[in-house]
Design brief:
The protein is of the alpha/beta class. It folds into 2 domains: 129 residues, Rossmann fold; 83 residues, Rossmann fold (3-Layer(aba) Sandwich), CATH 3.40.50. The protein has 10 helices and 8 strands. The chain has a 5-stranded mixed beta sheet with strand order 1-5-4-2-3. The model has no long low-confidence stretch (mean pLDDT 94).
Length: 229
């Protein structure tokens, strides 16, 4: 069942966005850190008549992001082989020697600073294009909440730290135990550890990859194992 805890929408400060996308004109490399960054980033570029042309290198954080870029006609010159996060990006040969280069990172408002800080340490000039924001949904599915309270929800999927934060904001104080005792499925050890920090004491399943297919496979494996016990 779908129970969205995060809404993705455009940023409010459009003049700041216009200034940010202008950096692409001088970029040696541009990095997209999510499919949402592709959707909203390319929309902003189109609005301001800015193109990403060779020899500017285009890097993607993972296969889903790379596919979105290719669908829009942008060739992807670099993608991590198996670690689809900032650490994986930093292992790419294209980002090993960036001294004096200008790198532009397309992302949502707020994100991790590790990629930025490491590239700066390597001598790159780094700018962000924060082209979308994450917010709480305007309405909550009360039916799903009722099912959860009644013990009818077996697994809760959380694919980011932000999603975990938003879920806790949605749950009232009286429902906090639902999160604490939940079986949570996620796509990264980073979110697994974060859920522990937030108080989850239940089992946390981590998929082998970042996509929906890998997440569903991990849940199915857990369910099959539970049935054998």
């Amino acid at each position: 069942m779908r129970f969205p805890v995060t809404t993705i929408c455009e940023v409010e400060n459009l003049s700041q966005l216009e200034s940010a996308v202008a950096h692409v004109r001088q970029a040696d490399k541009v990095i997209f850190v999510s499919p949402n960054a592709v959707e909203f980033g390319l929309k902003a570029l189109k609005t301001h008549a800015i193109r990403i042309d060779p020899p500017t290198g285009v890097l993607a954080i993972g296969p889903g992001t790379a596919n979105r870029l290719r669908e829009q006609g942008l060739p992807v010159s670099g993608i991590p082989l198996d670690q689809f996060n900032s650490e994986g990006l930093l292992k790419l040969p294209q980002l090993v020697q960036v001294k004096g280069q200008k790198v532009v990172i397309f992302r949502g408002e707020g994100g991790r600073e590790q990629l930025h800080d490491r590239l700066v340490a390597l001598g790159a000039r780094v700018d962000y294009v924060e082209c979308y924001k994450r917010s709480l949904p305007e309405q909550i599915d009360t039916r799903t909440m009722a099912m959860w309270r009644n013990g009818e929800i077996d697994v809760v999927t959380l694919t980011s730290n932000t999603a975990a934060d938003h879920l806790l904001q949605i749950l009232s104080l009286s429902d906090h135990d639902l999160f604490e005792n939940a079986v949570i499925a996620t796509v990264s050890t980073r979110t697994q550890q974060y859920c522990r920090q937030l108080g989850c004491t239940g089992q946390i399943l981590v998929s082998a990859g970042p996509g929906d297919e890998a997440l569903v496979s991990r849940i199915n494996d857990w369910r099959a194992q539970a049935q054998r016990q």
